[in-house]
Amino acid sequence: MSFTSDLKVKDSAAFITLAGELDASVAGQFKETVEQAASARPSKLVIYMDKLDYMASAGLRVLIFAKQKMGVGVSIYLIGCQELVKGTLEMSGFHQSVYMQDIYAEA
């Protein structure tokens, strides 16, 4: 399955939608999307992961990069993680530095 990483910026939030399989061969594409999102200087980054079927360690490295690139003042939300992806995030401990939710409701 192919991989897509789409960005939308609305108000003070950046929204990234991931779909497919995130491995080393496409991690650069995701990193570019994160860099574009960071350039918008959002107060929160929302990453929809419900269509992400698989994430290798390269994807986790980009998520760590996103956390560092956005800075401490930016909240990161991972929405709709499938069990396989959620397991990777929990085993690494990364889930403790972001908000993981089934759905995202704007306040």
Account of the 3D structure:
By secondary structure, the protein is an alpha/beta fold. It has a single domain (4-101), classed as 2-Layer Sandwich (Transcription Regulator spoIIAA). The chain contains 3 helices and 5 strands; from the N terminus they run ββαβαβαβ. The protein is globular, with a radius of gyration of 12 Å. The mean pLDDT is 94.
Name the quaternary structure.
single chain
Number of helical stretches of at least 4 residues? 3
Query: How large is the share of residues in beta strands?
Result: 25-35%
Provide the structure class: alpha/beta
Q: Element order, helices and strands?
A: EEHEHEHE
Provide the gyration radius in Å: 12 Å
The helix content is 25-40%
What is this structure's SSE topology?
Elements: E1 4-10, E2 13-22, H1 27-39, E3 44-55, H2 57-70, E4 75-79, H3 83-92, E5 99-101
Parallel strand pairs: 2-3, 3-4, 4-5
Antiparallel strand pairs: 1-2
Helix pairs in contact: 1-2
Structure summarized in a few sentences:
This protein is of the alpha/beta class. The chain has helices spanning 27-39, 57-70, 83-92, and strands at 4-10, 13-22, 44-55, 75-79, 99-101. β2, α1 (27-39) and β3 form a beta-alpha-beta unit.
Name some characteristics of this structure.
about 110 residues, alpha/beta, Transcription Regulator spoIIAA, 5-stranded mixed β-sheet
